[in-house]
Amino acid sequence: MVSARKRNWILALLFLGWALGNLDRYIMNYAVLSITEDLNLSASSTGLLLSSFFAGYALMQLPGGWLADRFGARKVLITSVIMWSIFTGLTGAAWSMVSMIVIRFLFGIGEGGFQPASSKIISQAFPKEKRAGAMSIMLSSGGIVALIIPVLSVTLLTTIGWRTTFVIIGFVGAIIAALYWYFIKLPNSNETLSAQNSQGVQKGSFKMLFKTPLMLNLFIAYFTLYAVNWGLATWLPTYLVDVRGLDLVSLGWLQTIPGVAQLLGMFLSGYVIDKLAKGREKIAGAFACVFISILLYLMFTASNVTSFIIYQTVIMLIISFVVILLPAVVLKNLPSSVAGSGMGLVNTGGQLAGFITPLAIGFIVDAFNGSFNAAFWMLIVFAFICAVSLLTINYEKGELLTKKNEEASAS
């Protein structure tokens, strides 16, 4: 059993790594304004650039989870951080659209193993009743980054430029990889559990994942929720500048307001979800997604920027709740031996959305002569589908998977 002190130290390091990963992803949404100008990109090309990271990230989710289960989460975690640090630094050296797309795709491959590996580490180090809280703390780093990134991006991009910014982020990643290698060391029984089970328990459980209805529902929920999340994150800066007429500095300061809401939501959600009785979380998540769809309509039809920001703020607060709820459902309903694979499987849906949505929005904006209305309607539909997928979750096969794993371990 991992001591409380060691659990907290591991969680702090995972928080730090997740913050850096989010920093790179979010800063690209602001840097792309300068990159588009430097590389002379159309809206469709910009969408392809924003999506290229998610193509690699989605492709690596399931293999990353399997590798974490098979060879140990610590090894996958460190390898992931090393790879993404290299390609983040290389982003600053890109000389054309093609080189940028290739580099960002490989960056996505590198980072793809991080979430499955970190989720598995949480499932190994924390008891079930504390996993949602631990996950909310780790993922709250995204809220902190969303809070500071608008102002930080404007400061960095207008002083040292986008190329130097990415080189510095890559260097910081190398330092974090060294910290992981030195400090994250789970007990041998935990670190080698997946390797020992790979020929027995883990192998059978991995196959059963694909036959579990719970996984299909969560895959759809991940896809649709992150379609909304990354659709807004990648294109709102461009929308607010081109359509609502904000300058870059005003954009930076105004976007800190939704950032505060997202951070607050991340911290509170884990506590609330851990207190919900089994079955209640899917109802709460479904209602949350319905509210998101309504607020998205009110946001894009808002008559002024102030109303737009207010609606966006509430949306980010609610999205953060569902972002925490989805992995909590995974970690509470799957055995630790396949937690990495399960997380990788469902998160593939989320990262496919990250690839498809920015690209689709770029083509939609070009097709409608600069109008974002059709893109917002697409996001509204996605939020409603997420509500349906959560409401129809069936826990029965997930319980069977856990029971089978326990019986095989006992034997």
UniProtKB/TrEMBL annotation:
Gene3D superfamilies: MFS general substrate transporter like domains (1.20.1250.20). It holds the Pfam family MFS_1. The chain crosses the membrane at residues 41-59, 71-87, 135-160, 166-184, 214-233, 253-273, 285-303, 309-331, 352-368, 374-395. Its main location: membrane. CDD domains: MFS_ExuT_GudP_like. Residues 10-398 form the Major facilitator superfamily (MFS) profile domain. InterPro entries: MFS, MFS_dom, MFS_Na/Anion_cotransporter, MFS_trans_sf, Sugar_transporter_CS. PROSITE patterns: MFS, SUGAR_TRANSPORT_2. It is found in: Cell membrane. This is MFS transporter. The lineage of its organism: Bacteria, Bacillati, Bacillota, Bacilli, Bacillales.
